[in-house]
Amino acid sequence: MVPVADLPAYLSPSSASSFDGCPRRWKSKYVDRLPEPSGEAALVGSFAHLVLEHLCQLQGPERTLDSAKTLARALWEGFEADEDYRSLELDADASRAFRWNAWQCIAGLWTLEDPAHVEVVSTEEKVRTTLGEVPFVGIIDRVDQVNDELVVTDYKSGTLPGIRWRDDKIQQVLLYAAALYEETGEMPRSARLIYLKQSIVDIPVTQVKLDEAVSQLSESWQTLGEACGSDTFDAKPGVLCGWCPFADRCPEGRAELTRREAAGKLPAHAPARSLVA
Ligand code: SF4
Q1: Distance (Å, rounded) from C-alpha 49 to C-alpha 139?
Q2: pLDDT per residue rounded down to tens, the chain (277 residues)
Q3: Are residues 127 and 208 in the same domain?
Q4: Of ligand 1's atoms, which has the minimum distance to the CA of residue 247?
């Protein structure tokens, strides 16, 4: 029996999503605490988030593209010195491409809304509460006020996923809305996913949707508790094995990669492809 201490102190939306996606992968990260490199795409998103966080702390009229450029230049020095970025070992051309990709995300915001006219309540707001019986912690990218009601916003630097994967992102932002409701007593009017290079997914918040999101979180928490109690973390092989940093130590994942490679279903850019090359 694994000590109860292995049960996490709380769930975040990303931790719950990780467990639902593959309990074995969750264990590698959250129990075994194996390093999980961020990857270039995730770091592009981190830099864009950082610039937009600082931008939205300015007064409305100051939130211009020029201000964003100035902030990006000022913040880059610290970002490129960070260990996560340095571990990418990008040469000068690749570094330029990295910054260009991040800038496409940042500038994309102006094609979707004018940040100068957004009434920002907070950025990077940490919410710590209990949802159902689940201890919950999350960080909300941005909380706005629209006509005296709150709006929860989560930035996304990737492309808008298909319906199957979109549900997972919607669940996450609804949990932020539920947590904010729990903390403030005010039900947000909507939860938004801003796909910076593409479009806004706006989800009107209702009690029914919040209850469904919390109920799903509770199910994950219960299943996770059982997995910790029995020290049984099943592998859930699938398309994401191609992007799993722990695939090299997972027989089921390696078998999945081999099967997908043979079927021509393993994308050339999947990082774990090297394991079957
Ligand atoms: S390789 Fe696949 S099955 Fe194995 S831990 Fe990673 S995601 Fe799960």
Answers
A1: 12
A2: 444 447 899 999 999 999 999 999 999 999 999 988 878 989 999 999 999 999 999 999 999 999 999 999 999 999 999 999 999 999 999 999 999 999 999 999 999 999 999 999 999 999 999 999 999 999 999 999 999 999 999 999 988 887 767 788 999 999 999 999 999 999 999 999 999 999 999 999 999 999 999 999 999 999 999 999 999 999 999 999 999 999 999 999 999 999 999 999 998 888 888 888 6
A3: yes
A4: 1
pTM over 0.85: yes
**Gyration radius (Cα) of the chain, Å:** 20
Q: In this structure, are 211 and 131 located in the same domain?
A: yes
99 found inside a domain: yes
Number of domains forming the structure of the chain: 3
**Is 51 touching ligand 1 by the criterion CB < 6 Å?**
no
104 domain-assigned: yes
237 CA → ligand 1 middle, Å: 5
**Among 244, 257, 275, which residue has the most ligand 1 atoms within 8 Å of its CB, making it the best to mutate?**
244
25 lines ligand 1 (CB under 6 A): yes
* Pocket of ligand 1 contains residue 237 by CB under 6 Å: yes
Tell the residue nearest (CA) to atom 4 of ligand 1: 253
In a domain, 12, yes or no: no
Is residue 209 situated within a structural domain?
Answer: yes
Strands 190-195 and 149-156, bridge-based pairing: parallel
Q: Is 250 exposed, middle or buried (0-12, 13-18, 19+ CB in 10 A)?
A: buried
Q: Which amino acid is at 245?
A: P
User: What is the residue range of 92's domain?
Assistant: 40-116
Exposed, middle or buried by CB within 10 Å (0-12, 13-18, 19+), for 7?
A: middle
User: With a 6 A CB cut-off, is 98 part of the ligand 1 pocket?
Assistant: no
